[in-house]
Design brief:
Elements (H helix, E strand, L loop, with lengths): L3 H9 L3 E3 L4 H11 L5 H9 L1 E3 L12 H20 L14 H14 L3 E5 L2 E4 L9 E5 L2 E6 L2 H10 L3 H4 L10 H5 L4
Antiparallel strand pairs: 1-2, 3-4, 4-5, 5-6
Helix pairs in contact: 4-5
Length: about 180
């Protein structure tokens, strides 16, 4: 599969497409974030790199912007634990000590598949390391599927594919994150 059509969709939406990442640049980004890009994201980024405020600049994987995007999923969960009485049932009884509760949550989120930012608060899981994983919209513990895969996400977000069509079907189960999406937390 080539990503020419998706890059054209992005360009048509006014998003600059810079030359794609080299294998060395992709490997450096993966080393910095501690996770491999799924094959479809890797291919997409190697054919062209979207540039703009919402898109991570993977040529600068150590940037504050990327660190902030990588921290966003946990920070949102932490906010909901502190302010909205959220607690994942499988974590056991929530400790009365807020610091201990956040320590447990941090450990459990770190054990979950790493979420790799695509654009804004849209993410793709690093695991399983297969093409075709769903794209997630992550805002605190309000986590929903935003595309059954990277291509349908891009078509939904930027080309007018109705949301219902972008998530029609059964998305691949993603350890931990799918439980939040499905309300099993």
């Amino acid at each position: 599969m080539t990503w020419e059509a998706e890059h054209q969709i992005l360009a048509g939406a006014g998003i600059e497409i810079a030359p794609g990442l080299t294998d060395a640049q992709l490997e450096r980004a993966e080393a910095v974030i501690g996770a491999k890009f799924p094959p479809d994201l890797r291919a997409f980024l190697s054919e062209g790199l979207p540039v703009g405020d919402r898109f991570p600049d993977w040529r600068e994987p150590n940037s504050k912007a990327i660190r902030d995007q990588l921290d966003w999923p946990f920070e949102g969960i932490a906010f909901d634990i502190q302010h909205n009485a959220f607690w994942f049932r499988s974590w056991g009884v929530q400790p009365a000590d807020p610091a201990k509760a956040l320590e447990i949550a941090r450990t459990r989120v770190a054990e979950a598949p790493r979420l790799i930012p695509i654009s804004g608060h849209r993410y793709i899981p690093a695991e399983p390391a297969l093409a075709g994983s769903p794209v997630l919209s992550v805002y605190q513990t309000d986590i929903i599927y935003y595309g059954l895969d990277l291509a349908t996400y891009l078509r939904c977000e930027l080309d007018g594919l109705p949301y219902e069509d972008a998530v029609r079907g059964k998305p691949r189960n993603i350890r931990f994150w799918s439980e939040l999406v499905n309300g099993n937390a």
